[in-house]
Each structure stands twice: as structure tokens, then as C-alpha cells.
Inverse folding.
């Protein structure tokens, strides 16, 4: 059974960040699925991507929208909740309950806004590790994540090498490259230049109703990077909206309508300051920071590491994941395997084309 439970943990001890700053106090919201066995050795950690949350599977009472990886996690699914106890946390810096830029700043009880410190992928992972210690979970069977979730999974392997037996990282990289940083730059600039953003001093209740046009425009660029030429052709096929005329100046192709609908709706439920902070964390992500080389960082991984790339991923190219595999095998490490999934969907294939990875992941687990 799924046994979905949503919980929050409050921490008063300081969280020492990579930047040298301190975050205290802070909260972490998380969900669990399945049942923890007596030996406490059936735990799987799920790490979410940029706009994901702790709500990875199942549906809340009175809500029709399932968790973002619902096709992957559950009874009889690839991550089988009849076998495993699954934990999915919301990262610090996000806007779904864990402490972020719009959380109240102690002791002033007003939002942090720009007083919130820059957090990194390692900071997110460190906070999760502290949470698991509090829950009495000192080692896990596996950690799984895609995109920014894959960054977290790799960081767990490098910085907490004895924590997980298996790590499955999908559609990710060892360090964010310029192509992805450039797409994030468009989103950041579009948010910052929108007068309704009010230089970070907006009223979140207003944005929940109206959205933020600048953020929507930036999100359109993001959507393009998540797809591919082939998936767009297949999905939209140059179709025009039925009620629009071809020679109307503002008549729309279906692809335009799709970008508008998804992007403007997105801005009503995702906080713009969180978007700025999390894209900053993604941009500065580099597994080799603090080491002499990427090889030295990767040499710390003792878990059985599986790297899964997707053929037409334009955001994090398969070659970026293959590089990790190549470096580790050159060092003589046998605890790594790499596979490229044939897919023309693009970066989001790990979320959408679950049928192409579920049997493989089930076997790995």
C-alpha cells in the first residue's frame, strides 16, 4: 500500500552553509510512503528537481493532482511501496513548506526575501542528512533523483559516501554547463525586470491570483529546454488553434497556446524568489568544488552508482553523464554503470517516459 504521510520537522541547531553563512532555525517538509521494516534497511530517498516538491506520489484528499513521480512510486511500481519505505523531502530554498526566502525570519516574523542566504545543492543534501539522522535513519538502500534531483543524489554519494548502498542519477551532470546557465539567466532576468515583482517586495497573495508575467516568459524558455525538436513536432505538429485564424496577428499555434497556458499558471503556484534562489543553486553546482579535480570528488563514491541519460536531452547532454562514467572507470572503479535511454522526448523524459526506465530501475533495486 502507498501509506502516504506528510510531515514537518523543525530544527533549532544552526545549519552551516557552503557560503559560510548560517541558517537557523529551519523547517523541512517531507512525505513518506510504504512501511519502514524492523531492520530499517528498506529506505529509498527520492530527490526532486527544480520545481518539484516533497509530494512525489499519491493524491491528497480532495485533490485530483497526483505527485510528480506517481507513475514511478507506489504499489507494484518501479519503486514498490509494498517493499520499500520511501522518503521524499522538500529542499531548503523551495516554496512548499521547507524554509525558503518567503519563510518568516526569526525573530522578526517577516519574510527573509533577499536576507535569505544563497544555498547550494550540497546545503540541500546536508539538511536532508540531518533530517534522516533525526528520524533514526543512518543508511539507506537507495537514493534516486533526476535533473536537480540527480545532482543531489550524486552529492550524497560524494559527501556522504557510506549513507546509500545504491545511487540512481538520471538526466543530470557533474557541473552545470553554460547552456543550462543561459536558460536560467533568461528566467532570472524576466523575473527581476517585471515591475510586479517589486524588486522582491511583492505580496505573495496577489501573485497567487494574478501570476507574474515576467516569470511566465522565463518559464517558457525553460519549457523549451525540457523538450526536444522531435517531441514538439510530435506533440503539436504545427497545428493552429481551431478558433484562431491563420492571418490573425495574434492567432496562435498550439505550441504557443501550450507555452502560455502552462507558464502563466505556473507563476500562480511557484514563488519567484524561490525560483531565483534554486536556479542560483543549480548554476553554481559543481561536484568538484572543494577538491583538486572532478576525479578526486568521484573517487569518494562507494555506493553502486547507476547513471541514466536520455538521448535527446538538450539541457544535460548524455555526454555529461558519460563523462562521469568514463572518469570513474579510468580510475579502476567498478561500482558504476551507465546507460543511455533511447528517447526523443528531451530532458523531461525521466518524468514522462517512465515505461522506458521502470523495469531497469526495478531490477537495480
Amino acid at each position: 500500500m502507498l501509506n502516504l504521510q506528510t510531515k514537518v520537522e523543525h530544527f533549532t541547531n544552526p545549519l552551516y552553509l557552503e557560503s559560510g553563512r548560517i541558517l537557523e532555525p529551519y523547517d523541512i517538509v517531507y512525505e513518506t510512503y510504504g512501511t519502514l521494516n524492523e531492520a530499517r534497511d528498506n529506505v529509498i530517498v527520492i530527490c526532486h528537481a527544480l520545481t518539484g516538491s516533497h509530494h512525489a506520489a499519491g493524491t491528497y484528499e480532495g485533490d485530483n493532482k497526483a505527485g510528480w513521480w506517481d507513475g514511478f512510486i507506489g504499489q507494484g511500481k518501479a519503486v514498490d511501496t509494498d517493499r520499500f519505505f520511501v522518503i521524499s523531502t522538500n529542499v531548503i530554498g523551495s516554496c512548499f513548506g521547507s524554509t525558503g526566502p518567503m519563510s518568516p525570519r526569526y525573530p522578526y516574523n517577516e519574510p527573509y526575501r533577499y536576507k535569505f542566504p544563497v544555498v547550494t545543492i550540497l546545503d540541500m543534501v546536508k539538511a536532508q542528512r540531518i533530517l534522516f539522522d533525526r528520524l533514526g535513519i543512518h543508511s539507506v538502500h537507495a537514493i534516486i533523483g533526476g535533473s536537480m534531483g540527480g545532482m543531489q543524489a550524486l552529492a550524497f554519494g560524494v559527501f556522504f559516501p557510506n549513507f546509500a548502498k545504491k545511487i540512481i542519477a538520471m538526466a543530470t551532470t557533474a557541473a552545470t554547463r553554460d547552456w543550462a546557465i543561459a536558460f536560467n539567466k533568461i528566467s532570472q532576468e524576466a523575473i527581476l525586470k517585471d515591475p510586479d515583482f517589486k524588486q522582491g517586495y511583492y505580496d505573495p497573495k496577489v501573485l497567487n491570483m494574478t501570476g507574474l508575467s515576467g516569470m511566465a516568459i522565463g518559464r517558457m524558455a525553460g519549457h523549451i529546454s525540457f523538450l526536444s525538436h522531435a517531441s514538439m513536432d510530435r506533440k503539436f505538429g504545427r497545428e493552429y488553434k481551431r478558433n484562431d485564424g491563420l492571418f490573425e496577428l495574434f492567432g496562435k499555434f498550439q505550441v504557443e497556446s501550450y507555452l502560455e497556458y502552462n507558464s502563466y499558471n505556473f507563476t500562480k503556484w511557484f514563488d519567484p524568489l524561490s525560483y531565483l534562489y534554486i536556479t542560483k543553486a543549480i548554476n553554481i553546482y559543481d561536484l568538484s568544488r572543494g577538491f583538486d579535480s572532478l576525479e578526486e570528488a568521484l573517487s569518494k563514491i562507494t555506493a553502486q552508482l547507476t547513471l541514466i541519460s536520455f538521448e535527446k536531452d538538450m539541457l544535460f547532454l548524455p555526454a555529461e553523464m558519460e563523462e562521469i562514467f568514463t572518469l570513474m572507470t579510468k580510475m579502476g572503479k567498478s561500482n558504476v554503470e551507465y546507460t543511455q535511454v533511447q528517447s526523443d522526448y528531451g530532458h523531461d523524459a525521466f518524468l514522462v517516459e517512465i515505461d522506458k526506465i521502470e523495469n531497469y530501475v526495478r531490477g537495480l533495486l
Q: What stands out?
A: The chain has two domains: 5-176+287-364, 180-280. The mean pLDDT is 96. The first strand starts at residue 5 and ends at 11. The two ends are 18 Å apart (CA to CA).
